[in-house]
Amino acid sequence: MSSGLYKALKGMKDIMPPDIHIWQDIEKKAREIFASYGYLEIRTPAVESTSVFIRSIGEDTDIVEKEMYTFQDKGGRSITLRPEGTASVVRCYVENNLHGLPSPQKFYYMGPMFRYERPQSGRFRQFYQIGVEAFGSSRPEIDAEVISMLAHLLSGIGLQELHFQVNSIGCEKCRPGFKEALLSFFEGSFDELCVDCRRRYSQNPLRILDCKVGRCIEIRKGAPSVLDHLCIDCRDHFQKLLELLEMLGIRYTVNPEMVRGLDYYTRTTFEVTSENLGAQNAVAAGGRYDRLVKEFGGPETPAIGFALGMERIVELLKMTLKYDLPAPEVFIAVIGERAGREGVRIVDDLRAGGVWAELGDWTSSLKSQMRRADRLSAGLVFVIGDDEIQSGHVKWKKLADAATGEVRISGIRDFIIEGKQA
Ligand code: HAM
């Protein structure tokens, strides 16, 4: 039952303990793995000029057409809360002349994205992505690097049983031929397509391949495959990528129907899905976007990246892993005001030494302080009263196995910190 006057907005949620520990673990692992692949963090604003997204994601996509949080600011400019990270990173790359630095330039980012979608399980209006973008190499080796890094990250956080799907959607050389083939395939059944697909027919027929409407799925059976229309260079690139993935032991399936919902892609596209999620089963997705830097006014610069959806990853981890909550190493229970004051000094000293220490409230009974220590799953508990202060010695108890012992009060810090190092 919720209470209070206010609620978070629909499709937006608070991320709190205990789940936040899972989030932090994923972020930590991601930073470690990205560092070993030479990806550096980049933080772009959460809001951009609306045209940054229209120009990159594409005018006829669901995101731009229906899902953007677009506002006028007080200066009358149209601004949009970022629905994804790639467009902002490309804007930043071009604006700051990062193409002048040695290639490839490799970046990662973490943060909230906003899409005004119909909220449902695994789909939010504010959701978090961790993403990477690598600029300046058109080699399939970098495609393999990006996909392998994603595979390492997912297995590193404990996720198995995921499906990697890859595809190539060609380049500006082979795309027109494929579009032609699609147009003639769908020409006869145009009137039976859904309203969206009829529009897609003239604007971007590739997206008919991605439609979720049952009738359209039926109609597109036997549609031309993009893989049969790749030019020699694209075919070679894709073939080499598949060989590299095999060499790296990454299990994948080729899915020629995977065209992705953003218009900037060229050549390689990929998606990672899980059978343990419902309809929104993509945990990560990405691909090449070799034309976008140029489109944004930069030099011809091939690029590739991916983004993973944090909420979906966390949900999967909660289904499969048991998480231990972090717990204080030390709990000091105190009897009487004098001991209470001494406790303040001791925990302050321990905390300065990097130890998570908690202090009981001397105005509460010892029993209720011990209950709190128990609830927190504290490691060692010390009970300090007038007698202990008088003698300078204090007993400790390990809650996990009830082991006990005694130390000098003045030696608690060394006892704990050296004990940790031992
Ligand atoms: P995307 O496929 O739109 O790609 O999103 C990537 C991932 O973000 C999805 O696979 C999903 O896990 C998560 N996601 C997307 N929308 C939502 C939502 N409403 N609620 C929860 N999770 C969601 C991109 O965003 C590209 N920028 C990826 C990329 C980077 N391509 C190249 N570089």
Automatic annotation (TrEMBL):
Q: Signal peptide: which range, if any?
A: none
Query: Per UniProt, what is the name of the gene that codes for the protein in this document?
Result: hisS
- Enzyme's top EC category: ligase
Q: Where does this polypeptide localize?
A: Cytoplasm
Task: Indicate the quaternary assembly.
Answer: Homodimer.
What CDD domains does UniProt report for this protein, alphabetically?
A: HisRS-like_core (cd00773)
- What is this protein's name? Histidine--tRNA ligase
- Annotated TM spans: none
- A GO BP entry: histidyl-tRNA aminoacylation
The UniProt keywords, alphabetically, are:
Aminoacyl-tRNA synthetase, ATP-binding, Cytoplasm, Ligase, Nucleotide-binding, Protein biosynthesis
Q: Domain Aminoacyl-transfer RNA synthetases class-II family profile: where?
A: 1-326
